[in-house]
Amino acid sequence: MASDSRFTTVLRVITSTKEDEESTKLEEVPELKGGARLNKSIGLLSSVTIIVGSVIGSGIFVSPQGILAMTNSFGASIIVWIACGLFSLMGAYCYAELGTMMPRSGADYSYVYEAFGPFFGFIRLWIEVIVAQPVAAAIISMAFANYLLKPAFPACAESPPIAVRLLACVCVITVGFINCMSVRWSTRTQDIFTFAKVAALVMIIITGFVQIGRGRIEEFEDPFEGSNWDPGSLTVAFYNGLFAYSGWNCLNCMIEEMKNPRRDLPIAITVSCLIITVIYTMANVAYATVLTIPEILNSDAVAVSFAIRIYGPAWWIMPIFVAFSTFGGVNGTVMTTSRMFFVASQQNQMPKLLSFLQTSSLTPIPAIVFMCGITIIYVLIGEISSLMNYLGFVKWLAIGISVLIVIIFRFTRRTMERPVKVPIIFPLIFVAVTLFLVIFSFVGAPAEALIGLAMVFSGAVVYVIGKVWRHTPQSLRKIVHDVTVGSQKLLRLVPGI
């Protein structure tokens, strides 16, 4: 009864009209005075598993041939994998400086908003949370469905499309439910599935070492034989490798929920990037002990081909592990991206409802539901892989701008506290390489780059309309009000602060 009374008081406050706000106080509920905060429950281990779980998806199991096709030798491909890992670590350190300087959830959106203002902040938000991340989550969830169904349809090249989409929707809904219930639930889920995917890769790596012990070293007798050192091919290989490392900046989205971000963020970044680099490198070495270069290049799923060759009738265990890997990827994407919705709503650049927290779990349920809803729409649309190609140009442009802020703030905000301060050479190298990648993307695929820019422009149009259209129709305002109040009553929500 006391709990109901407490909630009624909070609900009355947060649904009061603007005229009543000055006279209405939250003093009756001291612990929620002014609203609720995100729960600080993420420790160092969970920080590491969030990054590792978000970065390691289906790519290392399915398509390492992207790099091998460009380098034409195992030796050169291994060098590219290591170089991509070190480059990602360099960028992650730059994000550690930004995150500890501005410890606000939202990551890139918060940094761009702070440095360049609300317009560019909204553009960054638009691309990331309306298209890029939901599309990525949709693709990963469909990969989850494909690989979970693969043992049930061993004779088919592809599982039935309807079954794939339905199971992908179930995956997204399950992840959304877990994230709504508790931050601890979502981080524990990430821990479990990260350990599962790492275990699968360790199994592959151990198998590779066993094969080496049996003398299967033909591909390493002259590992650089036939290597393609053409700069254009190496650039494409490097570009493909960097996409396999995508997600190293995800922890910044949840920095407000970290127990000790100043200490844990740089440690988690270092440990996770090194773990990922070692795992990726050793997994490719293991593949080389079993499969030849032509076999890898012609395989739709390298890990499955590896398992069929080595494990025989037990090959089906590998698609299951790949499914575990992708489930963790969906969880990591939903968990981190929903915080960008949350922060953008606090800045009045998204509907206010998305900045509300549930009173018991302190999770941003509206933001999570919104993220999952957009993802399911993309799942049902189906043919969405090309969207990621269109956004590759924009994605690297946006990341480069975020790291550029490190350099800008060194001159414009010299007195700002920096718990983590990276050598200036790190952001300089990162921005230079990123600029090269952006130019290369535009020159190599101008049509896709122009489509990506058109998506950016669509965000600018939405922003301008939102600014110009100040007199919202009364009917629309009533709908928004009714949805907001109804959601507050149904889910017991209070404003996040």
From TrEMBL:
Signal sequence, renumbered to the chain: none
Bilayer topology annotation: Multi-pass membrane protein
Molecular functions (GO terms): L-amino acid transmembrane transporter activity
Name of one Pfam family that matches: AA_permease_2
Record's keyword terms, sorted: Cell membrane, Membrane, Transmembrane, Transmembrane helix, Transport
Record's keyword annotation contains Transport: yes
Cellular location(s): Cell membrane
GO cellular component, one term: plasma membrane
Cross-referenced InterPro entries: AA/rel_permease1 (IPR002293), AminoAcid_Transporter (IPR050598)
Similarity comment text for this entry: Belongs to the amino acid-polyamine-organocation (APC) superfamily. L-type amino acid transporter (LAT) (TC 2.A.3.8) family.
Protein name (database record): Y+L amino acid transporter 2
Organism: Clonorchis sinensis
